[in-house]
Amino acid sequence: MENDIKEVLLTPEQITAIAKDIGTQISKDYKGKNLVLLCLLKGSICFMAELMKYITIPCVIDFMAVSSYGSGTESSGRVNIVKDMSTPAENMDILIVEDIIDSGNTLSFMLQYFKAKNCASVEIATLLNKPSRRKKEVPVKYSGQEIDDLFVVGFGLDYAEYYRNLPYIGVLKESVYSDTEE
Ligand code: PRP
Ligand code: MN
Ligand code: MG
């Protein structure tokens, strides 16, 4: 598994530093609000777990599973809800926690989805951001690290469902996926 990684982009320590920064800011911005940390499964599982440790105000957590990538490295553009929230979103300040924003398809779908729910607010926190790949603009309130157009895995991010358990963000070697791409 480690052999498939070309380069480490963010070490566990760097990820923790980002989570601390964003967590501290969220704790200030959401004081007195009805904060819901909404983890978008599966990719955000690690960032969610790290970020929430540094949020020092009352909040609830919830999970949604949405998926747009098949087994390839390109978004299909179609977003499916695999699992919905288990707590009501009405009147809540929803903060969507994402691992990465690429085309923006997933989050523009999510923002659309919440439009009909009468939330007090809906914002986005992401660990990684690839603005060069954006197809749909989404407003990002908290962004950890901007990255170039590289296929990254680890710390929750997958290629064909694998590599999520790496404790860092790494660039996948092209040879791992080049024979399966058209
Ligand atoms: C990945 C990633 C983001 C999304 C970003 O999820 O975790 O949620 O793609 O890409 P986009 O901006 O082009 O929509 P994926 O659909 O692979 O599901 P997963 O989280 O279960 O891996
Ligand atoms: Mn995802
Ligand atoms: Mg994925």
Automatic annotation (TrEMBL):
Molecular function GO terms recorded: glycosyltransferase activity
Gene3D superfamilies: 3.40.50.2020
InterPro entries, A to Z: HGPRT (IPR050408), Hxn_phspho_trans (IPR005904), PRTase-like (IPR029057), PRTase_dom (IPR000836)
Enzyme Commission number(s) of this protein: 2.4.2.8
Catalytic activity, as annotated: GMP + diphosphate = guanine + 5-phospho-alpha-D-ribose 1-diphosphate; IMP + diphosphate = hypoxanthine + 5-phospho-alpha-D-ribose 1-diphosphate
SUPFAM superfamilies listed in its UniProt record: PRTase-like
Principal localisation: cytoplasm
Cofactor(s) needed by this chain: Mg(2+)
Pathway membership, UniProt: Purine metabolism; IMP biosynthesis via salvage pathway; IMP from hypoxanthine: step 1/1; Purine metabolism; GMP biosynthesis via salvage pathway; GMP from guanine: step 1/1
Keyword Hydrolase part of the UniProt annotation: no
Phosphoribosyltransferase domain location: 14-159
UniProt keyword terms in alphabetical order: Cytoplasm, Glycosyltransferase, Magnesium, Metal-binding, Nucleotide-binding, Purine salvage, Transferase
Pfam families (alphabetical): Pribosyltran
Compartments, record wording: Cytoplasm
Top EC class for this record: transferase
Record PANTHER family: HYPOXANTHINE PHOSPHORIBOSYLTRANSFERASE (PTHR43340:SF1), HYPOXANTHINE-GUANINE PHOSPHORIBOSYLTRANSFERASE (PTHR43340)
NCBIfam families per record: HGPRTase (TIGR01203)
Family: Belongs to the purine/pyrimidine phosphoribosyltransferase family.
Protein's job: Purine salvage pathway enzyme that catalyzes the transfer of the ribosyl-5-phosphate group from 5-phospho-alpha-D-ribose 1-diphosphate (PRPP) to the N9 position of the 6-oxopurines hypoxanthine and guanine to form the corresponding ribonucleotides IMP (inosine 5'-monophosphate) and GMP (guanosine 5'-monophosphate), with the release of PPi.
Protein name as it appears in the record: Hypoxanthine phosphoribosyltransferase
Species of origin: Ruminococcoides intestinihominis
